[in-house]
Amino acid sequence: xxxIKIVGGNTLHGQIHIGGAKNSAVALIPAAILATGxxxxxxxxxxxxxxxxxxxxxxxxxxxxxxxxxxxxxxxNIENKTISEFLSKRLRASYYFMGILLGKYKxxxxxxxxxxxxxxxxxxLHLKGFEALGATIxxxxxxxxxxxxxxxxxxxxIKLDFASVGATINIMFAASLAEGTTVIENAAKEIEIVNIAxxxxxxxxxxxxxGTSEITIEGVKELKPTQxxxxxxxxxxxxxxxxxxxxxxxxxxxxxxxxHITALLDKLKEMGVNYQIKENSIIINKTADLKAINVTxxxxxxxxxxxxxxxxxxxxxxxxxxxxxxxxxxxxxxxVEYxxxxxxNIVLKDNAHxxxxxxxxxxxxxxNATDLRGGAALVTAGLIAEGTTTVSNIEYILRGYENIINxxxxxxxxxxxxxxxx
Length: 422
Ligand code: UD1
Fold this sequence. Notes:
By secondary structure, this protein is of the alpha+beta class. It contains 14 helices and 23 strands. It is globular and about 60 Å long. It starts with a strand and ends with a strand.
């Protein structure tokens, strides 16, 4: 079994370079097959979710080559086969193949997507969107296989009940190759959606309004291969900034767009964290006398749910009682048990509200990553704890944080991956 071993207490200094955004890349990679031919993606992060998507592409007879952070995708010989159950379930973002293959072939066969266990994670909004465009959906109950079929797709006015990131992007994919105009009302405004709409527009799609709550997609007959750069990962950046607020000695988090993380920066300021914003980087320092605050996760541009768990570790070091409230996912407090085991004082009111009293000294312990961002939170806790922490289930963390061990080691952390017998 592989574990992350951390000996806590080291300061973090120098530069940490941020990679391409996971949530953008996991949509851009499959989107390349909307066109037939050779597409190129730059700044693709080296994460295991990327590899899981490559395996699905290979199953569809798409040729994928990776050189450093450049991915070349050749879909010339693509075959619209069933995506196997194993691969469908390896990650949540496999759902993007639904919108893409439906748009391109008007037929998709795959299974219910997987992903971290942070709530029930339904896909009803995606499916309702596809139905509005004219698809018929067959769900085979016992295996959770989905078959989507359409004679043709026709543009429609779709109002999302919730501004779902995945549903917005998936409907954009299918609608790009529908006949006529689709309007998505109450669309998600996450900045990654702009990156994806840019890629589709470069391919020849006609999408306006991405990044606002109303997106209009005028369907086109076909899309052509092109190139795009994956935007910087605001969640990876935010995670290292939180680590920097705890341990930074002029730590510089580089290669980012600070305007994407305004909600986090506002909260750090409210706590009294000392940071300096530059054009494409932020320099951050460990701050004494952090103030307790309230943090509520919201859709973009609100405080990102994906930074709530790392933020909860920072709150354990603030003076007073902080409230950490999660409003997007049902099950994002699983890491709290382990923080308390390390010495934190966190009282869960329910699955969505935690009262965090600080500051508390944390002590190293054997702990278990419960999900991707919860895992990053526990690594953060290990970095500030006294003594040695070992984190198990590290595959969750490697799904979304490229090269996390080396990035932290180079910044001064005492962290490594060790192998133990089961
Ligand atoms: C994306 C991100 C994830 C982030 C989330 C919210 C990717 C690959 N993942 O996930 O990191 O935490 O946005 O910012 O981009 N919902 C439904 N029905 C649906 C779809 C969603 O009820 O059909 C609900 C979900 O249960 C959840 C909420 O809507 O409560 C948000 O989900 P959504 O925005 O769709 O998240 P994802 O796109 O899956």
